Amino acid sequence: MPSDTSVSSTLPTTSYRDLLRNREFVGLHAGFTVTVAASTLSGFALGTLVDRQTQSPFLTAVSMYGATFATVLGALTLMSVADGNRPRRTLVALQCVSLVGVAAQAVPGLPLAARFGLLLVLGFFQSLGTGTRMGLLAEVVPTSAYALARSLMNITSGGMAILGYAIGGVLLRYLSPQGVFVVATALTGAGVVIVAATVREHSIRLTRRPGLRQTWTTNIALFSHPGQRALLLNLWVPNGLIVGCGALFISYDPRHADVFLAAGSAGMLLGDLTVGRLLTAEQRRRCAFPLRLLLAVPYLLFAVHPPVLMATGAVFIASAGFAATLPLQEQLLALTPDPVRGQVQGVESAGRMTWQGLGAAIAGGVAQYFTPATTITAVAAVSVVITVSSRPFVVRARAGSRLPEPGTTA
C-alpha cells in the first residue's frame, strides 16, 4: 500500500468545497460527469432512432437501457478486477473500450442487431469500469466523506443528464442520430483524457489474483449475508422499476419525452443535493424508506392521463426519491471490508443498472399489450408494494455484522 495517499483524504471533509480541493477526486468526478453526458446523448439518440425505425415501445425502451443487461455479467465474472493493484490503468483501458463502442454507433446504416450487440458489450465493460471507479473513490476520499462524494457525483451527473436530454432534443432537430453519436464519442474521449491526466495509481489492498474464482468467492459471501441481500434488494428493484416508467416516456408522449426526462434528472439532482449535503448520516438513514415511497407514488398520477405540466411535476418530485440510494449505499459500505470495497460497490452498481434494464424491458413488454399510461401506473404500484414489504428486512440489516475479510470464514 503506497504511503503517498492524498493529503485531502486525511483531513476532515465536510463540504463539497473540501472535496473539490482533492485533485484526484476532481478527476474521477469530471471524467464520470462527461461520460454520463455522453451516455445520455447516445442513449437518447439510439432510442429515437429505434422508435423511428420500429415504432415498438419494447425495442425503444430496451435500446435506451439495453447496456444495463450486460452489467450483471461483469458482476458475476470479472468484477474482482475493481480491487486489482493497478486500478487507474484498468479504468483508462475500460474507458477506451467504451470510446470504441460509442464511436461504432455513429456508423451510418449499422443494422439494429449490431447496435444491440454493441450495447451488451459496452454494458459488460462499463460495469467493470464503475466498480473500479468506486473502488478508487473509496481510496481518494475518507470514509466519512463517501456519501458526500457520491452525492456530488450524482448531482453533477444529474445536471449533465438534464443538459444531455435538453441538448439531445435540440441536436436531433438539426442532426441525424448518427451526428449525435459523434458528439457522444467526443465526450467519451474527453473522459478518458481527464482520468489519465489527473488520477494516480493506487493499491487497493488485494492479496489474491483478480479473476473468476476471486469474483465468485466474494459474491458468494455477499449474497449469503442476509443484511446485504436486503440492502441490495432495495437498491436494485424499486429503482429499476421506476426507470422502466421513464423508459416509456417516448412511447407515452414523443413530443414531450425530452421534457419528462430532463425533469427526472432535475429531481434526482435536487434529491441528491438535499440528502447528501444537508442531512446527517442518521437523518439520511431515517429518510431512506420515505424516499423509496416518494420514488414511486407520484407515478400513480399517470392513471388519469394528467396534463403535460402536471405530469412533468410528478416526474420531478418522484425522481427526488432516487436519493434513497445514498443512505443504503452508505450502510452497505459500512458492512464491507476494505479489501473488497471495489467489487462490492461494483456488484451493487451492476445489479442496480441491470435492474434498470429489466425494469425497462418489463415496462416495454407490458406496454405492448396495454397503454403506456396504464403500464407506468402498474409498474409504480409494484414498486410501492416491494418497498413496503421489504422494509422489516432492511431494518434488521442495520444491526447485522460485516462481511468476513477475504481469506477468513464467516
Q: How would you describe this structure in keywords?
A:
410 residues; 17 helices; mainly alpha
At a glance:
Helix 2 (23-54) runs antiparallel to helix 6 (112-140). This protein is 74% helix and 0% strand.
Break the fold down into its secondary structure elements and pairings:
Blueprint: H1 16-19, H2 23-54, H3 57-65, H4 71-77, H5 87-105, H6 112-140, H7 146-174, H8 177-198, H9 212-224, H10 226-246, H11 249-252, H12 257-278, H13 281-296, H14 308-319, H15 325-334, H16 341-367, H17 372-397
Helix pairs in contact: 2-3, 2-6, 2-7, 2-8, 3-16, 4-6, 4-16, 5-6, 5-8, 6-16, 7-12, 7-15, 10-15, 10-16, 10-17, 12-14, 13-15, 13-17, 16-17
Q: How would you explain this protein's 3D organization?
A:
The protein is 74% helix and 0% strand. The protein contains 17 helices and no strands. It has helices at residues 16-19, 23-54, 57-65, 71-77, 87-105, 112-140, 146-174, 177-198, 212-224, 226-246, 249-252, 257-278, 281-296, 308-319, 325-334, 341-367, 372-397. Helix 7 crosses helix 15. The two termini are 26 Å apart.
Percentage beta strand = under 5%
Number of separate strands: 0
SSE class: mainly alpha
Overall pLDDT confidence:
80
The general outline is globular
The sequence of SSEs as H and E is HHHHHHHHHHHHHHHHH
Q: Unreliable stretches, pLDDT < 50, 5 or more residues?
A: 1-12
Tally of helical segments: 17
Rg (C-alpha, Å): 20 Å
In this structure, how is the largest beta sheet organized? Answer: none
